[in-house]
Inverse folding.
């Protein structure tokens, strides 16, 4: 029996993205999934636009803007579908994009989360930054993807046409079992935005679930629809939330070494921003560290709350070497350049 599917698009003052892509999602999801828009208290005419042009789309109206995490947590309490796809509003889907996703969940009851192939909507032969062909972590907690290491993006030549288990699936298009999502507490509001899907997938793995990259489904992501890579606020969230996710989930033994090393490497990154003439990004790194210290007690409570989940390390999809050394010192720019024997 096929699983029920909902497509949930989070929106905040994004009527232009809805005009660009909502029709595409509705057209390519007919007879397969209900389409929802979770609106984070928009002040533009997003809700009116949906009501006028897409009355079949169900709007779930949040009372305030609670970010990516709070918005989806709000929506997930109202949805009833077994599989929910968290879809960014700046994503273009393709015909039959849902079939492979549903098939994989039907095939494996232990599969709890999945992402499709994510390509760049503005350059459709290129992988997109946020997810590419599935997400991984290195031994010090740096995230990367098949198809994207740091800022280097690969062209899609079919080199990642095989499905595989990954550490994390991208929040740009994240298909998840609703019961698993709710049982592990959903997305952590402490993150607000960025890295929240990595934290979610980490907890899913600790719970015993699998995360999969599904190449038979393809979507195109604009990226930077909410915050551009040039925005210091994005730098702030990326650096701070990377520390958050490590502190929450790493077992005690590697935790303090990893955090200490990351603080040093973050400082070096801040200095590099300064050399590059990006002082606002340097300040964002400094603010990220102070915010990490400020939230220390809350993070410690989060660790305690997760004691019922096994503190396993490494999990599936960990590269047991330093990506920083491989990339910056050894010049390894592509996933295939990395030591494939060092992946768990």
């Amino acid at each position: 029996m096929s699983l029920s599917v909902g497509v949930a698009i989070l929106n905040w003052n994004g009527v232009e993205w809805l005009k660009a892509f909502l029709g595409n999602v509705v057209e390519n999801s007919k007879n397969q999934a209900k389409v929802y828009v979770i609106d984070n208290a928009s002040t533009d005419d997003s809700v009116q636009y949906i009501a006028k042009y897409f009355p079949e789309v169900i709007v779930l109206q949040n009372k305030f803007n609670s970010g990516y995490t709070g918005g989806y947590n709000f929506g997930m309490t109202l949805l009833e579908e077994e599989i929910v796809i968290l879809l960014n509003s700046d994503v273009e889907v393709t015909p039959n994009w849902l079939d492979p996703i549903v098939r994989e969940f039907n095939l494996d009851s232990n599969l709890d989360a999945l992402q499709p192939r994510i390509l760049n909507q503005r350059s459709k032969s290129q992988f997109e930054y946020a997810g590419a062909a599935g997400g991984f972590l290195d031994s010090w907690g740096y995230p990367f993807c098949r198809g994207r290491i740091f800022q280097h993006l690969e062209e899609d030549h079919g080199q990642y046409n095989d499905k595989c288990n990954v550490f994390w699936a991208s929040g740009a298009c994240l298909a998840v079992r609703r019961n698993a999502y709710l049982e592990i507490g959903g997305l952590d509001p402490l993150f607000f935005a960025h890295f929240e899907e990595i934290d979610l997938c980490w907890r899913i793995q600790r719970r015993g679930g699998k995360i999969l990259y599904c190449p038979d489904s393809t979507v195109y992501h604009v990226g930077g629809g909410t915050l551009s890579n040039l925005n210091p606020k994005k730098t702030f969230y990326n650096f701070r939330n990377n520390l958050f996710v490590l502190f929450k989930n790493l077992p005690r033994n590697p935790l303090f070494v990893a955090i200490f090393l990351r603080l040093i490497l973050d400082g070096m990154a801040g200095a590099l921003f300064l050399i590059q003439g990006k002082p606002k990004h340097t300040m964002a790194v400094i603010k990220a560290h102070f915010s990490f210290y400020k939230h220390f007690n809350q993070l410690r409570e989060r660790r305690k709350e997760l004691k019922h989940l096994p503190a396993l390390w490494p999990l599936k999809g960990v590269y047991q070497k330093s990506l920083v050394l491989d990339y910056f010192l050894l010049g390894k720019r592509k996933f295939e350049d990395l030591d494939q024997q060092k992946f768990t």
Summary: The first strand starts at residue 5 and ends at 11.
